[in-house]
Design goal:
By secondary structure, chain A is an all-alpha fold. Chain A has two domains: 92 residues, RNA polymerase sigma factor, region 2, helix turn helix motif (Rna Polymerase Sigma Factor, Chain: A, Orthogonal Bundle), CATH 1.10.1740; 99 residues, Arc Repressor Mutant, subunit A. Chain A is built from nine helices and no strands. In chain A, helix 1 crosses helix 2. Chain A is elongated. Chain B contains seven helices and two strands, in the order ααααααββα. The chains are: A mainly alpha (193), B mainly alpha (165).
């Protein structure tokens, strides 16, 4: 069972030496942090490594957290920088990380779903599939906006951008996501026919 | 169309000024194209909001906390102990040495040919010959060898770990 204490209260308890309070914080944010890491790493093992690394980094610098912003915003900024660093490190081939085609190819290899499983072929499945095909930046902004309960200003703070830049990027990311969703659904319909 | 979409997304997100919001509401009510686009974006927004979060492995929290516990155990003692305590001990020893030096200097009789120092009455220097017996020296060397082996093992392990990373 997760603690009902606020993030700030849990942080104060952690700083006072109560490690189980930090375990509660990890439990509370692990799904979101892992999802964000998946937007960059694609492979579950790599994403889990990034997510763990983020929580450890956050623990180490917990005393420097100013409490002026939300803990989640601060944590997501750590996730973003850690994931970006990891992505740069793991870029072994010569293709650019900005090359959208890589993500389209990667998607078909890394999707954990069984393509023959009719149950999985729901709208949610196609949405996840389309998100996996987006560039990490676009996928991160979409995820932060829709699932992270973050305002444009907070997303900007987490990603080190102006709120207006985030707004423009969010608009473009939504358009790309819509296009990919439509394309995937069309492709699937053709296959069924 | 992009312009309409941009305005409609602002409207859906609640990022419009009051005046603009009114205008867009009127446009949606009166213009079929705006209304269709609004419905389309509203549906998309609903779909995006229903996005599911990924679930990490069951052992995720345990792994994080285990790493943190390991790190905490590896923290050198000097960073855990309050620096004031270290400074206090240091000052105590420095003061003791200084006091001893002052005592020795004030009790030393300096002359041109001979310098002598007498210990305080009742204080006798221990006879070291009684302490440095053969078994004691052997134990001391044995302990040194064990310590050297232990330290060199730790050193080579650390070196191998660094090379692997």
């Amino acid at each position: 069972m997760q603690s009902k204490l606020s993030d700030i209260e849990l942080i104060e308890q952690t700083l006072a030496g109560n490690q189980s309070a930090y375990a509660d914080l990890v439990k509370r944010h692990q799904r979101f942090v892992f999802t964000l890491a998946m937007r960059f790493a694609k492979r579950r093992e790599d994403a889990e490594e990034i997510a763990q690394d983020c929580f450890i980094k956050a623990y180490r610098s917990l005393s420097s957290f100013q409490k002026q912003s939300k803990f989640s915003t601060w944590l997501y900024s750590i996730v973003y920088t850690t994931a970006m660093t990891s992505l740069r490190k793991k870029r072994v081939d010569t293709d650019s990380i900005d090359d959208e085609d890589i993500y389209i190819q990667v998607e078909s290899q890394t999707s954990g779903y069984d393509v023959n499983d009719v149950e999985n072929k729901s709208r949610s499945f196609y949405l996840n599939q389309a998100i996996e095909q987006l560039l990490p930046d676009d996928a991160t902004i979409i995820t932060l906006f829709y699932k992270g309960e973050q305002s444009l200003e907070e997303i900007g703070r987490a990603l080190g951008m102006e709120a207006n830049t985030v707004k423009v990027k969010l608009f473009r990311a939504r358009q790309r996501l819509k296009e990919k969703l439509e394309r995937n659904l069309k492709h699937e319909t053709k296959e069924l026919i | 169309m992009t312009h309409i979409e941009e305005k409609l997304w602002d409207y859906i997100d609640g990022n419009c000024a009051a005046e603009e919001q009114k205008n867009i509401t009127a446009l949606i009510a009166s213009d079929a194209a705006w209304q269709a686009k609004y419905q389309e974006l509203l549906n998309l927004n609903k779909e995006f909001s229903a996005m599911e979060l990924e679930e990490p492995s069951m052992a995720f929290t345990y792994n994080v906390m285990e790493t943190i516990r390991d790190e905490a155990a590896k923290v050198p003692l000097k960073s855990v102990i309050n620096k004031r305590i270290i400074w206090g001990i240091g000052i105590f020893f420095a003061f003791t040495i200084l006091a001893l030096l002052v005592y020795i200097i004030t009790n030393t009789k300096f002359s041109g040919t001979d310098t002598s120092f007498s210990l305080p009455q009742g204080l006798k220097m221990p006879d070291l010959k009684n302490y440095f017996t053969k078994p004691v020296i052997e134990c001391f060397f044995f302990f040194d060898v064990i310590l050297a082996l232990f330290l060199s093992d730790a050193f080579f392990r650390k070196k191998r770990l660094l090379r692997q990373q």
